[in-house]
Specification:
With 203 residues, the chain is an all-alpha fold. It has helices at residues 4-39, 46-87, 98-101, 112-122, 128-131, 136-158, 166-202. Helix 2 crosses helix 4 (112-122). The mean pLDDT is 91.
Length: 203
């Protein structure tokens, strides 16, 4: 399989995810500041509050949409890359089917997708220095992606109770803002990684 086009798609979506991460950081940091003003007895207009809610909500919706599209492309890329190395008579730590199943199996989704794609990087070239190494952009990007997911879950849990206090709402928005910052970095790293790995498979 030629993975250049698919890799470009992953890189573009990862770049968009990075942009949305920045917007998420701005949106939730701003809303947290408004909540802090309200807590401190300062005046905040309804229009400002509604605009902050709308901005934050929009970033969440678009993050989900781009995240789903990116996940689909990552699965396809992993499947095809695993096929490429199998055609060379090589194999990774997991069979090709795990390029799909690894994303949907509890606990295993924390490391199998990384290993599938990492093995595809290592085995795509006959060069010894590549076979003995790893793509650090992919390692860091994948790890930070899951850190971002964990922060988003913490934000949801913090603000899940209908009786949550304003302090809980502020803390939740801080978690979401940090999630945005992490997503910004992860998106850039994954974009760079897949540009490199797709070119390696094209050689």
């Amino acid at each position: 399989y030629n993975l250049l086009g698919l890799g470009k798609g992953v890189s573009i979506l990862s770049g968009l995810s990075a942009v949305l991460g920045l917007l998420t950081l701005i949106a939730f940091a701003y809303r947290a500041s408004l909540l802090s003003d309200i807590k401190n007895g300062e005046y905040v207009s309804w229009s400002d509050a509604d605009a902050a809610d709308a901005f934050a909500g929009a970033t969440v919706v678009f993050q989900w949409l781009i995240g789903i599209a990116l996940l689909v492309l990552l699965i396809i890329w992993g499947w095809r890359a695993a096929g490429n190395i199998e055609s060379k008579g090589r194999s990774g730590r997991w069979s090709r089917g795990w390029a799909i199943g690894g994303w949907f199996t509890p606990v295993m989704f924390l490391f199998v997708p990384y290993q599938i794609i990492s093995d595809a990087w290592k085995n795509a070239s006959d060069e010894e220095e590549i076979n003995s190494g790893r793509n650090n952009f992919w390692l860091a990007g994948f790890a930070l992606w899951w850190v971002g997911v964990a922060l988003g879950v913490m934000g949801n849990i913090t603000n899940a109770d209908i009786d949550s206090s304003i302090d809980d709402a502020i803390l939740a928005d801080i978690f979401y803002a940090i999630n945005g910052a992490i997503s910004l970095i992860a998106g850039i790293l994954i974009a760079v990684a897949f540009n490199q790995m797709s070119k390696r498979h094209a050689q």
